[in-house]
Amino acid sequence: KNLVMVTLGTGVGGGVIVGGKIVVGQFGAGGEIGHMCVNYHETKQCGCGSYGCLEQYASAIPGNVIDLSGIFPYTKSYFTYDAASGQYLKNIHGAAQVDGMNGEQLTFSNVIIQNTNWSKRDAKGYLAFQTIDSASDGYYFTKGRGIHITWKKTSDYSPTKYYDDNGNEIQLNEGKTYIAIAQKDRTLLYS
User: Fold this and answer.
1) Cβ neighbours of residue 91 under 8 Å, at least 6 residues apart?
2) Rounded CA gap, 172 and 49, in Å?
3) Which terminal Cβ of the chain has fewer Cβ within 10 Å, N or C?
4) Which residue pairs from 69-73 have beta carbons closer than 8 angstroms and sit at least 24 positions apart in sequence?
5) pLDDT level of residue 54 (50, 70, 90 thresholds)
6) Which candidate, 75, 60, 61, places its Cα nearest to that of 186?
7) What beta strand segments (E) does 35-123 contain?
8) Helix and strand totals (H; E) in the chain
9) For 102-136, what is each residue's pLDDT tens digit?
């Protein structure tokens, strides 16, 4: 009749049942335990906009800055997470990367780093990436947090699927997704 369930992933979720009934709360988020305040002295903002949420301490890896300069050393690309908009802001060559049509900085809800086997094809450094694979890994970042993932693509025309470390397929959050096809064994930094 009574149950509390906690889930850990890119966030902290859960559900509460009391007397055989689901507790939904005033705004339908009764099981949203990841955003209960556990540290009233926290000065760093959570992805939801509040401070001191359980999710800031108990889930995933930090994903406020995703530094791709070790993967793409020429462009020195990186993302910064903007908690107010819930978006990752794309930067390249040390400045905002902007859309050529409207002049606005590129933004993404999700960032995937897809570590990929590769080989050098010629003396000029042309690279070939193996995007059909079932044993490679990477990272998935969303809402200021990230998790380690594995990915699988079985043929040229099949979709790439992403899985958490428990083997569950990842459901991407709504919005644009940036996928970095990265040379395996290059360094990704995040904080």
Assistant:
1) 77, 78, 79, 80, 97
2) 21
3) N
4) 69/189, 70/186, 70/187, 70/188, 70/189, 71/113, 71/180, 71/182, 71/183, 71/186, 71/187, 71/188, 72/180
5) confident
6) 75
7) 61-62, 65-67, 78-82, 87-92, 95-96, 107-108, 110-116, 118-120
8) 1, 17
9) 999 999 999 999 999 999 999 998 999 999 999 89
- C-alpha dist (Å) from residue 162 to 28, 85, 89, 102, 168: 29, 25, 23, 32, 8
Tell me, yes or no, if the pTM score tops 0.85: no
- pLDDT, tens digit, 9 for 90 and up, residues 59-106: 578 889 999 999 999 999 999 999 999 999 999 999 999 999 999 999
Instruction: Bin 3: left if φ > 0, else alpha if -120 < ψ < 50, else beta.
Output: beta
Residue with tokens 């994903």: 63
Over 80: is that where the pLDDT of 33 sits?
Answer: no
Name residue 59's amino acid: S
Round to whole Å and give the CA distance between 162 and 176.
Answer: 16
pLDDT at 47: 63
Task: Please count the CA atoms within 13 angstroms of the CA of 39 that sit on its side-chain side.
Answer: 15
Confidence (pLDDT) at 163: 95
Query: What's the token pair of residue 46?
Result: 């959570």
Structure tokens at 27: 């705004």
